[in-house]
Structure formats: C-alpha cells, structure tokens
Specification:
Blueprint (H helix, E strand, L loop, with lengths): L6 H21 L3 H26 L7 H22 L5 H17 L17 H25 L7 H34 L7 H23 L4 H24 L12
C-alpha cells in the first residue's frame, strides 16, 4: 500500500472522504445531506481527472490507475441517470462502489505519468475504453442488486431481480459497443480483428455470460430470481477477471499488458 503525497493524491483522498461521509449520512437517513456530499465528492473527482489530464497530456484512460480514477467519478453520473431515468435508487450501493474503485487509485497503483503508446493514439481509444468502464459500473450495480435477492425476504426478491435486469439491460449494449470498437481498432492497429489475446477472450466470455443471462431470463422471466442473480454475479465475476487478473497476473501475457 502506497500513500500518494501529491496534489493528485489529495484530490483522490478528498473524494474518498466525501463518499464515506455521504455513505454515513445515507445510512443514518440524512438523504438530502448524503446527496449533497455525494455531489461534492463528484466535483472533486472531476477536478482530479482534470488535473491528471493536464499532468499527462491525454485523457486519463491509459493504465489501471487512470481507469479506476475515471470510474470513481463515473459512478456519480451512473447513479444520477439510474435514479432519474430508471427509478433505481441505490445511492448507498453507488457510494460503496465509488469508495471501492477509488481505493486502488489512491493506495495501490502507481500514479507516475506515462507517455501514451502509439497503439493508443487512436480515435477509438476514448470511446472503446469509456464504453467498457460505464458498462462495468452498471454491472457492478447489477451484481449488488443480484446479491440482494439472496438477502431479502422472498416477497421482496422480485424488486431486486427487476433492478438487476434493468441495469444489465443498460450495461449490455455498452459491453457490446466496447467489443465491436475494440475489434475495429485491433484491425487498424494490429491488422487483425481478433488475435485471441487473453483480454479479448475474457471480454468475449463476459459478453457471452450476460447473453446467457438474457436467454435464460427470456425463457423464465422473473420466475427464478435466484438463478437469474447467479447469472448476473457470474458475469460481474468475469469482469473482475478481465479488468484485474488478466492485467495483473503473470500467467497472462498479451497485447493489452500496457494497461498496467
């Protein structure tokens, strides 16, 4: 664990502190205060992204530090969209997600600025990575809702199951977009739409699991909420493998290793 004694680190820690305080306010029933503090944390998170952008000279989506930094800000926007458009109020879960994704940026991954490799200097760079990160946040929320199915009483399970379905329905097109853009980009950069790179394979595996979720749910609807939830949690588990294990494990070696 490494504490970052820098302006970048200070902004990250302020964001985490804001999210922790907002979560405490939410737990104690201070909903309006919690939402205001959540908004403050988001503003600081955006300031952190702007600082990083100025510091490295490109939009911060290059490595693991920057990916988690972006997700730490994106969670607020996803939370807002879900509450306003989908009527899914999971602010406490959203704050927990924000804290979890900012922890690696604040204490684990190296924040040293790095030059953008030639392979990433593409028009596909931002939309490809951003689509995946937004999908990952939505699927994280879906996994939490799916876990709720196993915790709440039976009569309340359907609400959690339906929230899970809505969230996956929003995230799946983004997963698909990320996969398609990545294939087009691979053709342009490496002269091959599909190179059987470990990250490509796990991204496809993730997509197939969620496709299986839709297939299973189309047959049985919400008749088996726990089975539906297992599909959802399995899909998010594949995301964790794609994002972390494939990048950090020495077992895997591929064209995406620059993302560390």
């Amino acid at each position: 664990m490494e504490v970052k004694y820098s302006i970048q680190g200070l902004l990250i820690y302020l964001t985490i502190a804001g999210y922790v305080l907002a979560l405490a306010m939410r737990i104690f029933g201070k909903r309006k205060i919690a939402q205001a503090v959540f908004g403050f944390g988001f503003v600081v998170a955006v300031a952190s992204l702007v600082y990083r952008r100025i510091n490295v000279g490109h939009f911060p989506l290059q490595n693991m530090f920057e990916l988690f930094l972006v997700m730490g800000a994106g969670v607020y926007l996803i939370s807002l969209i879900c509450r306003k458009l989908m009527r899914i109020d999971q602010v406490a879960a959203d704050l927990l997600i924000g804290i979890i994704v900012l922890f690696p940026a604040g204490f684990i991954f190296d924040a040293a600025p790095k030059q953008l490799p030639p392979a990433l200097q593409s028009v596909f760079f931002i939309p490809h990575v951003a689509a995946y990160l937004l999908a990952y946040i939505l699927m994280f929320k879906a996994a939490i809702a799916a876990a709720g199915v196993f915790i709440v009483k039976e009569r309340n399970r359907i609400c959690f199951e339906r929230d899970t379905y809505q969230l996956i329905s929003a995230g799946f097109p983004l997963l698909t977009l990320g996969l398609i853009l990545g294939s087009i980009w691979a053709q342009m950069a490496w002269a091959d739409f599909w190179g059987f790179d470990p990250k490509e394979q796990w991204s496809l595996a993730t997509w197939l699991i969620f496709a299986g979720y839709f297939h299973f749910r189309s047959m049985f609807k919400d008749k088996y909420p726990q089975a539906n939830s297992i599909w959802a949690i399995s899909g998010f588990s594949a995301i964790v493998i794609t994002l972390l294990w494939v990048n950090l494990s020495r077992i895997f070696s591929g064209l995406h290793n620059y993302a560390v």
